[in-house]
Fold this sequence. Notes:
The structure holds two protein chains of two kinds. Chain A is an alpha/beta fold.
Amino acid sequence: MSxxxxxxxxxxxxxxxxxxxxxxxxxxERTGSHVGTARDYQTGSIVAAWDVNxxxxxxxxxxxVGESGSGKSTVLRCIAGDIDSSAGxxxxxxxxxxESNLLSLDAATRRKMRIDxxxxxxxxxxxxxxxxxxxxxxxxxxxxxxxxRNFEGIRARARDLLQRTEVPLDRMxxxxxxxxxxxRQRVQxxxxxxxxxxxxxxxxxxxxxxxxxxxxxxxxIRGLLEEFELAAIVVSHDFSVIEMLTERCIVMHHxxxxxxxxxxxxxxxxxHPYSQKLVSAARA
Amino acid sequence: xxxxxxxxxILDVRNLTKSFVLHNIDGRxxxxxxxxxFTVEPGQHLALAGTSGAGKSTLLRAIYRTYAPSxxxxxxxxxxxxxxxxxxxxxxxxxxxxxxxxxxxxxxxxAQPRRSVLDLVIRAGVSRGMNVADARELGILSLRRLNIxxxxxxxxxxxxxxxxxxRVNIAAGLISPPRLLLLDEPVSALDPENRESAIQLISExxxxxxxxxxxxxxxxxxxxxxxQIVVMQKGRIINNxxxxxxxxxxxxxxxxP
Lengths: 284, 257
């Protein structure tokens, strides 16, 4: 037995799968990386993700890389509960001692778990924020959902979060639609941290931002992950994002995990033919 | 300087082989290391020599697991005296060892563009289990030793010169001495004065008992730091012995990057 102390995992994902359309015998065999498609030609069903397994520890960020349509965002959204999964078991050590499968919670419990423990930062701030509402109001929303009632307390918390995410406080009462892309993303991150989540899911958090703005947002995310010992999943097609935020990552292709590696190893010594193609394309 | 008492090796590499299968270049296989075996004891500084393409960097990377070994064993002795095979342990176990017990300093700074110099060094210490105050104190100490003046501490690393980056890299890599230190041309971009400071620092670590495995591109650094020299050629070890035996056999061309 090895004497190396590794942190306990906070999130355990086993056998996660999502199929759009009828699930029929053989659909799994007729799709996937080795077949070159996620679409079952017999039924038209899309096997968007299948047999996805991984663990994430506190203070650790796991990367998910792959091209558009590979299933990486599907995995994130299944864990967040934004979409229903077709199969799998997802456990959070900080929720009911890891004894409940998050995928089989009733809607009310699931909503509560999500408010208290899991946050998502979406590529498009319009998905994570109400653009017609002020920055302060966007942060107040998850706080009131978690039971905060004191107006001044909520304002103080919002101020603190905006400060941490480097949003000028004199913009707190402006509607988010008037903000730049980078600042919208900072507000989204502030909102995601409102209830001290244990797990943060980041879906292409810097895609679409100018390089210098993206660098600032990445730096912010990295600092926050370290400071709050958060478990995180980072979905990105951009290797520089993955390299900066993660130590380990998985590669998805046509709905399947084709490689599971240390991030530097994936970049320097990718094994799967698809990973090799992906890395050499990114390096070109 | 070799120790009089026989010690247990910190690193024991046995028949390490590394092949790369290039699926998208007609599936060809390129072998970078063939059956490499050697040991490094505490306080030993083993310098890897050999011409360009001999496999020196490949060997460092295969030990650090940036490359996944194809076969063979890489036994590493932990602080509790138990041994683990770095070629076999899990990715999270490797992550836990990196930085804390196994250090790696290369000629390149792994970029974190918006970090300040001091912040980067402090974080390196914190990631090794230090508290912020200690990391700050030790970080400042090692930055000073490497002639990184106070006026550079709050500057983003992206604006530093190559030599400054390399010294910051060394400071971050050495803030808390690992048990095994892998060095890949850590002083290649430094001017003579700064090179001297870096060499001094590395030499002290060896005297403190750190096991060092290093690639340098000049014989002078090897002569001053190494206790052992391993000569590689085409991914194989062709000679291995004490520095005074091997050094006279080497030419400057034998240590080209």
